[in-house]
Structures are given as C-alpha cells and as structure tokens.
Write a structure and sequence with these properties.
With 337 residues, this protein is of the alpha/beta class. Helices cover 34% and strands 21% of the residues.
C-alpha cells in the first residue's frame, strides 16, 4: 500500500504526492538550510551535470550552505533512471534531487518517483520552462564541434548541410540517443519528416561512429581520437578551450533541449532536496550555473560564454510526446540497436 509521508516545513505542508508551495508562505532559503542541517548534512544528487561543470557549481552550493555535502551520483541519464527505478522496486529511495534531460525527468515521474511541488522561484520562469514537478535548470545546445588539428581551417563547417559532403566519411562521431536532432530538424529546420530523414540518411552514408555520453564525445575530440562531433553540447567547449584544448565549435545553428530539476518523492533528506532545488532555480543559483559553464534557463540570467546558437531549433515539452516515433526513425537511419 502506498505510504504517504507528511512533511511539515514551518507553515508549509507537503505530502508525498502533491506539494502546495506558496511563495507567500514558503520559508527563506536560510530557514530551510537550518532544517536541512538536521537531516545529516548530505544531499544525494542524481545528475548528468558534467564533472567539468560540477566541480565549479556544486562546491559553490556547499559554500553558500555550510554543513551540507553533495554526493554526486554521476552517470548517463538512462542509467540514472534505471538506478532510481531499481532502488524503488527494492523498497528504497536513496536519491534527493534528480537533474537530467527533461524527457528522463518525465520518465521517472511517470514511474511515480518524483514529488509534485511548485517552487516559489519557478514563478519567474515562462511556461515551457517549468511544470508541476520540475523546473528547468539549464538549456543544452546540440552543436557540431571539431578537433582543430584534424580539421583544417578551410574545412571548418559553416552549417549542418556541410556534413553530407563525402569528405567527412569516417570522420564523424555522435551520441546514439540524440534523436532530438532528427525531431528538431523535422519539425523546425525542414518542417518535413521526409526532408529531415533524407538529410540524416545522407549524413549516415558517411559512416558516423557512435559513443555514449556527451562528455566522452568531447574528450575524444580533445584527445584527437575523432575529427568532428555532430551532436555535442556547446557548453562543454569554452572551458576546454580556455585550458588549451585543440577544439572549436559551430554556433551558426543548433538544437536546444531542456535539463530539468526535480525532487524525489520520499527523499531521505527532504528539506535538503528542496533547498537545492530552490537554490538552483533562483537567480543566484542560475548565475552559479552560468559561472560553471552551463546555459542558464532563468530568463534574467545569461550564459557567461558564447554557447547560444544564432539559429536555434527548440525542443519543447510537448515535442517529447513524439520521442518514440523519432527514436525509431533515428535508429533505423543509423542502424542502431
């Protein structure tokens, strides 16, 4: 039988399934911090925040809220979903905060594992960047990137149309799960499934090599083990370039998707989870995300580095209903299992 946990946060009451969180009644973050410290000082963060970003963002949270240490469970989004579901089936909830691509947030909510709660800070976000159980943490821009040693200056791509050229044969890598590229091209670049499928089939003819994990793709480029990445994240590159890596990336066009933050239902550290979720959604937290190299979702906070594409094909929450259709097509085009 489903057991409802009743948690009282001062004047605020949250149940295990529905949270009514009014900004007028909500505690301040400092008050919530005091409540969080009574839970043991640990936050179990299930997130795909890349280590190169996490090593900046997470310590700044710990500095702002002394006494709380973050245990970052870092894995690909599908593995984090599988882990959380497996733990739940074993009768345990170990995670506090879940921060991954929005489609995976929705996936875990469909399993009944996330708390429905409206954060006071989410009021600043437009529709499309928040939902009844999530708030956008950052935006991810899928772009092309390359190793500047392996790609000559005169070869550098100007648009995605360049990648149907045979000169890229056996020189391209990508993430096998990035069906967003096909969906966005079909709906917003070409406004035609047929044209988008035809385009990606021409790219597939250049023998694209697939590797799981966007951080892994970036590191392959840095190491010179690949020439061009078709589906890399723009925010992965400014930091690497500043460190002297021989890479560059294309901002003329790209696809944007949403990363979302949610709180686990029956979180072992509920006040701590709520503290992080509210902080990362706040202007302060979003500025830290920007400082850490991410693309903040807050409408009043801009990224520090040049990571936004000039022409952007945005994936919306509504588009995610069609993921199964485009995933099937994506796998068929590239002969993926």
């Amino acid at each position: 039988m489903f057991r409802i946990r009743l948690l009282v946060f001062g004047a605020l009451m949250i149940t295990g399934s529905i949270g009514a969180y009014s900004p007028a009644r909500a505690q301040s973050l400092d008050e919530l911090h005091k409540a969080a410290l009574k839970e043991g000082g640990t936050l179990n963060f299930y997130g795909t925040l890349a280590q190169i970003n996490a090593e900046i963002v997470l310590p700044l949270f710990e500095k702002r809220f002394p006494g709380i240490k973050i245990n970052h469970i870092d894995a690909t989004s599908d593995k984090l979903v599988a882990r959380a579901v497996s733990e739940a089936r074993g009768g345990k909830t170990l995670g506090d905060v879940f921060q991954v691509p929005l489609e995976n947030v929705i996936q875990l909510h469909d399993q009944g594992l996330l708390l429905d709660v409206a954060l006071p800070e989410s009021a600043a976000y437009p529709e499309g960047l928040k939902g009844p159980f999530w708030t956008a943490s950052d935006l991810q821009y899928f772009v092309a990137a390359w190793n500047t040693t392996l790609v000559k200056k005169e070869e550098e791509p100007k648009s995605f149309d360049d990648f149907i050229n045979p000169r890229w044969k056996n020189r391209l890598i990508a993430e096998p799960r990035d069906l967003e590229m096909l969906l966005a091209f079909a709906k917003y670049r070409f406004k035609s499934d047929e044209k988008a499928i035809d385009y990606w089939k021409k790219v597939a003819a250049n023998n694209v090599e697939f590797h799981k994990g966007h951080s892994q793709l970036a590191e392959l480029l840095v190491a010179g083990q690949a020439a061009v990445c078709l589906t890399c994240y723009s925010h992965h590159y400014p930091i690497r370039i500043k460190k002297g890596a021989p890479v560059n990336y294309m901002l003329s066009e790209g696809v944007a998707s949403i990363n979302g933050t949610a709180v686990f239902k029956n979180s072992p550290h509920p006040n701590t989870a709520l503290l992080f979720a509210r902080w990362v959604a706040s202007e302060t937290g979003q500025k830290v995300m920007a400082q850490g190299g991410r693309n903040p979702a807050h409408p009043k906070v801009d990224p520090i580095d040049k990571t936004k594409t000039e022409k952007t094909y945005f994936i919306t929450a509504a588009d995610m209903k069609e993921f199964p259709k485009y995933e099937k097509l994506w796998k068929e085009i590239f002969k993926l299992r």
